[in-house]
Design a protein that fits this description.
The protein contains 15 helices and 10 strands. The protein is α+β, with helices and mostly antiparallel strands and 378 residues long. The strands form 3 sheets. Strands 5-10-6-7-8-9 form a 6-stranded antiparallel sheet. A hairpin with a 3-residue loop joins strand 3 and strand 4. Helix 6 crosses helix 8. Belongs to the peptidase C40 family.
């Protein structure tokens, strides 16, 4: 009896497994968490079309595969599910298929107007489109046009140069379809091991948001950067991969954080004692006076001119300096030739040729006699 029961169980399990096996070259329904040799084929097809960016097909259906499938589905106007069903597989293989009228951008969808309070399949389609482009961040599409959908529409409208009304009108829907056609593959995919100026930009933005806590911006994508990216993705309700794809990169650059002069001063603390180097503007090489200011403001996302005279000619003059303002001195010639950052208590931070990066008394006889003014850049 026990053997019969086991046989029944095994037979049932075997039969169940057969339901998920491909037959006659057709695809089963592949989705997140599954492993199978045919998933390698799916990944290879996605890779050939520019959607799967992992170096090699693995046969495991992870989040990168799911994201690639969603982007492919959006590009061919299939339901954006992330699941490889028969229609998705046929589209990947280039086989002819009947178009699905519920997901194709029909004239009625583009011509309609959707706003807060609307609901239905058309709103689901709208949310799917916005989700693929990185604007709709709710965990699932609901088919109800609420405030989150409205905000997603507004952000998209701003990005494409339309009035941010929050109403998905004819112009907005047309722009949405245009954006989806252009989004055929990720333009950015940065992960551990990458390096360069783009990584510096990412680290600076992550540092401003409090996610990247490494003392210096290095331009190298290491474990600390990956962890910072994961924190940002979690906060932004994006897939937490630690990899900077185009959606993560775009969202990261969109986030603005108000300038905080206290953070500017805090970033300067580890630089005390760095040597004075003519033309220097990094912690590794050292700093001249304007290079130090340029570097510290860059960490806060503010771009300044590189030379003292150019800084002096920019900015807004202030009667009395506050923390974070730049103070200027005429140590030689007939105009500004030296500068530092006012840090409060009649003190300023600067890089002097005789001391390197240091703090000096603003009201000392030497500096007070040469002070010519202060300017603000935030």
């Amino acid at each position: 009896m026990e053997r019969k029961a086991k046989q029944v169980l095994l037979t049932s399990a075997f039969a169940s497994a057969l339901l998920f096996m491909p037959t006659h070259g057709k695809a089963a329904e592949w989705k997140l968490g599954m492993s199978h040799p045919q998933i390698k084929e799916v990944q290879a097809l996605l890779k050939a079309k520019g959607f799967f960016t992992y170096p090699t097909p693995t046969g495991y259906f992870g989040t990168m595969t799911e994201t690639a499938v969603k982007k492919f589905q959006a590009s061919v106007r299939l339901p954006v599910t992330g699941v490889v069903d028969a229609k998705t597989y046929a589209a990947l293989k280039g086989e002819k298929k009947k178009e699905n009228p519920s997901t194709k951008a029909s004239p009625s969808f583009v011509a309609a107007e959707w706003k807060v309070g609307a609901s239905g399949e058309a709103v689901k389609t709208l949310q799917e489109r916005l989700k693929v482009l990185g604007y709709f961040t709710y965990s699932q599409v609901t088919g109800y046009f609420g405030t989150m959908t409205e905000e997603a529409v507004k952000t998209f409208q701003k990005d494409v140069g339309l009035a941010p009304t929050g109403i998905a009108d004819r112009s907005t829907l047309a722009k949405l379809e245009e954006a989806l056609r252009k989004k055929t593959k990720p333009t950015i995919l940065l992960t551990i091991g990458a390096s360069g100026e783009q990584i510096k930009t990412i680290q600076i933005k992550l540092k401003q948001l409090g996610h990247f806590t490494y003392p210096e911006v290095t331009g190298y994508f290491g474990q600390a950067t990956a962890e910072a990216v994961k924190k940002f993705q979690a906060n932004a309700q994006l897939p937490v991969t630690g990899i900077v794809d185009d959606t993560t990169y775009t969202r990261l650059l969109q986030v603005q954080k108000p300038f905080d002069p206290i953070e500017l001063v805090a970033d300067a603390a580890p630089l005390l004692g760095k040597p004075y180097v003519w033309g220097g503007q990094t912690p590794d090489t050292g700093f001249d006076c304007s290079g130090l200011i340029f570097y510290l403001f860059q960490q806060q996302g503010i771009s300044l001119p590189r030379t003292v005279i150019a800084m002096w000619n920019a900015g807004t003059s202030v009667d009395a300096p506050a923390v974070g303002d730049i103070v200027f001195f005429q140590t030689e010639g007939t105009t500004a030739s030296h500068a530092g950052i006012y840090i409060g208590n009649n003190q300023f931070l600067h890089s002097a040729s005789s001391t390197g990066v240091t703090i000096s008394a603003f009201n000392s006889p030497y500096w007070s006699a040469r002070y010519i003014g202060a300017k603000r850049y935030w």
